[in-house]
Amino acid sequence: MDPPVDGPVAIGEPAGVDRDRRVTVAEQARSIAAAWSPPDAPPSWWLTAATFTAIAEDDELLSLAAAVPLDRLPPLVLSAALRFHLDERGPARLAAYYPRPGGGQPPPDEGFRPALQAFARSEASVLARLCREHRYQMNEVGRCLDVVPALAAIAAEDPRPLALVDLGTGAGLGLHLDRYHYTYRLPDGTESSAGDVRSPVRLSCSVRGRGRPPVLPRLPAVALRLGVDAEPLDLTDAATARWLAACVPPEVGAVTRFAAAVEVARAHPAPGLRGDLVELLPTVVEEVPPDTLLCLVDTYVHVFLPPERLSAFREAVARIGQVRDVEWISVDPLVPLGPAATGTVQGLKVPPTWLRDNRDGGVFGVIGRVNIRNGVRRGTVLGRAHPGAAWLEWTAAP
């Protein structure tokens, strides 16, 4: 796992942490709770909301989180540390609130928060160490639900098999999207399905609004799959796999699909490149057969790039587009991350109502497509989606 990246942290002393940082981290925690578990979210997301609300409001939990550098997403790191350590030596009463793969979502009651607070107090030093030694790694396989309709739109225009390049691949779960099964629940009560009907990975979401995502029963052929990450993750390492599982939101659908996707990835190891996303793009192009369509996919990766690196990535994609056709599918929150966001990582404009929703705390991923054919760039906003794959809103014209 990642080596320690920070020095010692003061535990149990809220005054030892900068007050402004505590306010910022509390706001982050509340925003995460609101994004993953808004009022209209399925009831199974209650534990996610309760966890991040507790981090925002409890002194002990907030002190632990606020000791983590802001660019490492403190509330998320702490939530993962709590879950990770709970599996090692947590009380059974607290563990009973957390869902297991393939099971049900334990119901809420007033005992969860006191139990979580007591656990944090008794294990503060261990939790602080875990937060120092790890980075948050979200491998939400459900986000493939956002990518698949974009691939269908591409396939309707271009029959070539795909050279699928997953940027910021992490554990590589997104590289196997053609090995999963997808169900889109439409507002009229009907469903659209795609993918491998025999797959153990069953992904589903509700479709909002008037638009209908294009769905092909059979996904486009994948001729090459390649992951790129600064720190690729090895699922055969037990400790790594446990930490990744702890990073999954404590919602039964999320933990179930993650566990199933891990088994698929272990059964079908895919090649990967270690290094900087921008610097490796020329190497990626060299790996892609000339008779395939290069398809770059990033989900919740580019939103965290500094502005200068994001600009460099866009320029690198443009250079590639001068020598071969390329598709870039992005599922990322608006940038800059936070209520002051003005656009997408691909530089595309979004409806003003989306900017307002974002200012009101409604974090979502914008599904964007940039395609370059014969050196000509086109960009389209396709829709937006819940960060944990609960819903999808498709806005692109058929």
From TrEMBL:
InterPro entries the record matches: UCP012608 (IPR011200)
Protein name stated in the entry: DUF2332 domain-containing protein
Origin organism lineage: Bacteria, Bacillati, Actinomycetota, Actinomycetes, Geodermatophilales
